[in-house]
Amino acid sequence: MIAQDVTEQPRPSPRAEPSERIATTWHSQIPDDKEMLRAAVELTRDISEARAAIYWPDMLGSALLGYAALAGAILLQNPLVALACGIFSALMLYRALLFIHELTHIHKDALPGFRFVWNLLVGIPMMIPSFMYEGVHTQHHARTRYGTNDDPEYMPLALMKPWSLPVFALTAILLPLALLVRSAILVPLGVIVPPLRKLVWERASALSINPQYRRRKPEGDFARMVFWQELGASVWTISVLAASYLYGWRPLIIALCVISFTAFLNQVRTLVAHLWENDGEAMTVTAQYLDSVNVPPPALLSPLWAPVGLRFHALHHLLPSMPYHSLGECHRRLSTHLGANSTYEQASYKGLMTLLTRLARSTMQAR
């Protein structure tokens, strides 16, 4: 009866502009669109395998280009050229870093060695080993957790104060410094101070945005993986600090600035990954889909600010295990099969600025 009362409330037209859709929790218990859910599975089975020939060159190329450009930003004397190198480095390292999202979803045997190499080249040097997302992000996809207080990656941003948006985005700039302190100081100290080790694990070992989230102690094989990744990150950060003390701080400062920009880009992307309209209720799968965002073609810049398939974030919530390189074809098939006025098309938006404007207007109407 409660679900019926909710779904009887006026529902915005699927063709309405984003600015006309008012932030609300009306859709938390919307009945599942079974045709869409069935089509998402049946029409995409043949493209659901992760292809090593795409993953490896993409990740390795992004990382190597990012580090080469970072070297240019550090070594080149022309300020404008160095700045351009720094921006390009941030974009490439951003793409390389976001393969952490793929690591949480692909089968452990799908790409042998990929996790190890990614951590060696990207995760540990950028102070974000894969354990900080693995075991966390999957909770965001849990049917009964999404959008609730138990979701580590959800905050009802659309229902919060307008000033919360710039604060949310700008705090990411401090992330690299916090990660440096974490791996170089807090983790080693935690070896001899158990309460500190427990605190760091629970509160500072997950890429989460929910301040209420507390991470559970790792167990089994995952605990062993965490140990080696933590050790690698601590050895790396301590070595970088020691080298900076001996040979100068300029390279480290420039590298931290590049990583800060990368973190800021990711935080802005996070702002528009969902509509953030749910206020703690458990949601149906279709409701979760409608609270998520696709920015499909013809949006030209979305592959830059939402790389590695994340411009199809709503579709990803329908098919969490679908490899990033197949999402564009999945979108084409579902759009063609379900039609322009379908539930599926309601999650598609025009671009970044449209979504940011919509979110800002929602915060102004919410309180």
From TrEMBL:
Keywords in alphabetical order: Membrane, Transmembrane, Transmembrane helix
Pfam families for the chain: FA_desaturase (PF00487)
Start and end residues of each Fatty acid desaturase domain: 80-339
Ranges that cross the membrane: 53-74, 80-100, 112-133, 167-193, 248-265
Region annotation Disordered: where it falls in the sequence: 1-20
InterPro entries in UniProt: FA_desaturase_dom, Fatty_acid_desaturase
Coiled coil residues, start to end: none
Record-linked PANTHER family: DELTA(5) FATTY ACID DESATURASE C-RELATED (PTHR19353:SF19), FATTY ACID DESATURASE 2 (PTHR19353)
Protein name: Fatty acid desaturase
Organism expressing this protein natively: Novosphingobium album
